[in-house]
Design goal:
3 copies of one chain form a homotrimer.
Chain A lengths: L2 H20 L4 H29 L2 H11 L2 H12 L3 H30 L3 E2 L2 H25 L4 H29 L1 H4 L13 H32 L4 H13 L1 H12 L3 H29 L10 H18 L3 E2 L1 H20 L1
Antiparallel strand pairs in A: 1-2
Helix pairs in contact in A: 1-2, 1-9, 2-3, 2-9, 4-5, 4-9, 4-12, 5-10, 5-11, 5-12, 5-13, 5-14, 6-7, 6-12, 6-13, 7-12, 11-12, 13-14
């Protein structure tokens, strides 16, 4: 962790705390500061997770990375669930999925493609990723299609059951891709390098980083309602575009960096892997978490959200299925992201 | 045909007849007995068809197998059509399609994949099967999309025309896959072995088996209404899950057996071939049969049914398009089947 | 340009003018004559464009061909936009897309496949075409999904923005396929042969042909309303089937001719390329053109039209993604065209 990052991390976190507790800054300023702080603390959490994963050994480490890679989003969302802001939670889940599939992947393919004429990645992994993305869309689409004919109670039951099935499917996928079919699916690994810290420091930093993400998330969520009203933005747009872009800033830079190093396989793994994790793990876990807070968040997404997730998966699958990428495929993904962004902004 | 099977066949058929005609058993008992009887007589009909097909020579035999492979389902459905129970007919067509694509195929890939790391089948056949499944979904989806703006009379006309077109497409497909492009599409053939009976006996057994299926179907259908009410099950769930699983029991065991012998191509042919046959041949034939009974059954399926068929085809196509299978792909299919099962049960 | 064609061109154009200005012919006769004239003048315009493109050099020529290949449809549509007949414009856009993807491509594969057992084309181009067709469907589907929750003003804004994005994407596609990745995507080129005319004559003929198309289109459009009422046809059916078939007559014959010469790659390029151009260039340009006439045509297509375009793209993509074609794949496309034709006729 270089010096600049440390200073940025501490400064933005402290400023954000001051703004929140003293209340001297306007909601807008609070919002901006906590956005900046989120980017830093999410980056810090990512590094700490990676470092702990390194010491945990390959298999458990892979699991940790895969499961806590979106810890920041998960924590932000838990605070939103606690406050009963289910709509904004679903919007931010939607935004994370489409942000990873369209913006992160699109920028990676585009910027990587400007440097290299064609880039290649493991076609078998692409095919499995495609099928898993398809499962994710189906799992979100079926409850929505049936919800109109169900009572609230039945919808809750359906949501909890689907959530459990998805978590089971996700754990089996980890077992499949990390144990039984590890070699078939391996690609250029995401470069982790040597960890910067000792084992003890890594665990300590993981705990500290998690706490920092938790606090900053709470402060950010606190400003959302004011911001949304003040600028006349819909919750849908704020959740699906603003929060999602902020929460995924770390993935953005990592994936693009990989693509520019001609490691497009690693970039795809970050972008697609992350969106799969959100859909198949984070979303269902949030449904189960909401049970603990006493009011079940159902898994029924709005038509707009389903359209956004559906078209993102369709275009990403169409582009990635041949295992070859180029700059124009990045353009296609970014074009769809723009169209969705405009539609969400206007609605 | 081994001794145990013969005894089971005769015993279950006689018991089912007794239960129906004497009326001493409750509806539930009648239902259970005739379910068991259906499994046996469907198996008997399958064997008799295979045996006659053997003597008919390769080409006509292939045609017989392909066209009468789902004779049991067809006969059950004709009795339902005669009684005007169109909703349950459509539900059982839906159930047959998704049962074959998700449950039969899913179990085959899963159990085959536990034994063999990767299994392969003809990728060209997979691609054609995928396009045909796509046609099936389109042919069911278009009438449903237009039906709201059509009168009943126009919907009937549309249904009859679409039915004729689908039957023509199916016959051309048989011609294509069995005559003009036989070699390109051949895979490990489904093992038939030597027929157990002489030519005359085979024909006689085919007639007897058909009659037995017809009777048992009528008895089973007779109990459905009572059962549905008694257990508070929806017609949709009974048709799409109970009847479909019972009617396809023979395919289930055959496909799984093939997969365990590493003949995954044959398992896919049974599962996918069967669902194609239901969608492109059985369903349209039932529309035309309903004309004979004086009241046209239209081809407009409910939203739930279309969702179920649509997502089944999408996930099956996504999984089968690379011609390679493994246990996790089986899990994906079974997961979608579970989600649909829960949704249909609750609705 | 052979003698027969010249005579047909002049005769049909003069007759059509007479019928329109003297008014002695009934609307039906006027309609039939101008349909015939359209086929000739569209063919003339196509040849003139090709000839000018030849002199313009490879790159600019390719651009001209790609951009003005559908000039006839564009001109017809502009006259319809001027008269505010937005519904029939959208119907004819729909019809052009599905006509090219299903009828032109279907006939080419079918008739080519009767002569050659298997025909092959560049699988990389097929994959890119598939992704672009997917983008086209998404770009039409998203505004329709969101339009219900938008005001007319917001829908207009969304339409204009989406139109600009699509035109940008289309221009980048031309740059990609003609400059940066020309060699990867090249296939058997569409045969153009030596131009029949000198450079000056070519430019003169291009201007004359454009004017002739413009006049004939206006005469044809003038008869539409009468025809529609007289035969009880819906605008949807007239626009999506009659006008589309007439406007694409030149592509039909060219593509089928290529397929019969075993140049299936060229046939696919004509059919798929043409439908992409309609969706990604002609349709958005018409939205911008409508701005000039003072009343914005939005980009929101009806459910029926979206269903038709959606299923066409899905089946065409499913069939073309392996780069191999045969007669039965042609049948599948034609079957879907028939089903859609019947549904549009009845609705």
């Amino acid at each position: 962790m270089n010096r600049m990052f440390s200073i940025g991390l501490i400064a933005s976190f402290v400023l954000s705390a001051l703004a929140h507790y003293t209340g001297i800054a306007s909601a807008t300023v609070q919002f901006i500061i906590s956005c900046i702080a989120i980017v830093f603390v999410a980056g810090f959490l990512g590094k700490a997770t990676e470092s702990v994963a390194h010491y945990a050994g390959e298999r458990l480490g892979g699991f940790l990375n895969a499961t806590f890679g979106n810890a920041a989003e998960l924590i932000i969302a838990i605070f939103l669930v606690k406050d009963g802001m289910f709509d904004i939670v679903k919007a931010s889940i939607t935004g994370s999925i489409i942000g990873n599939l369209l913006l992160v992947l699109g920028l990676s393919l585009f910027l990587g493609g400007l440097k290299y004429k064609e880039q290649h990645f493991n076609v078998k992994l692409a095919s499995h990723n495609g099928s898993l993305m398809t499962l994710a869309v189906i799992a979100l689409f079926v409850p929505a299609a049936f919800a109109k004919s169900l009572t609230n109670f039945e919808t809750s039951n359906l949501s909890v059951l689907v959530a459990c099935i998805l978590i089971a499917a996700y754990l089996l996928w980890l077992y499949f891709s990390m144990v039984t079919h590890k070699n078939e699916l391996s690609d250029e690994a995401v470069e982790h390098g040597e960890p910067a810290w000792s084992k003890k420091a890594s665990i300590l930093f993981l705990i500290i980083a998690t706490a920092m993400v938790a606090f900053t998330s709470e402060w950010l969520v606190g400003t959302l309602e004011t911001i949304t009203h003040q600028f006349g933005l819909s919750e849908l747009f704020v959740g699906a575009f603003l929060i999602a872009i902020i929460g995924n800033a770390a993935e953005h830079s990592a994936a693009v960096m990989m693509a520019r190093k001609n490691k497009i396989g690693a970039a795809v793994e970050i972008a697609v892997g992350s969106s799969l994790q959100i859909a198949l793990f984070v979303a269902p876990v949030l449904v189960l978490v909401s049970l603990l807070f006493g009011k079940t968040m159902n898994i029924v997404f709005s038509t707009f959200e389903l359209v956004a997730i559906g078209v993102s998966v369709i275009i990403a699958k169409s582009i990635s299925q041949d295992g070859t990428t180029n700059w124009y495929e990045g353009v296609l993904l970014l074009v769809v992201y723009c169209i969705l962004g405009i539609a969400f902004f206007l609605v």
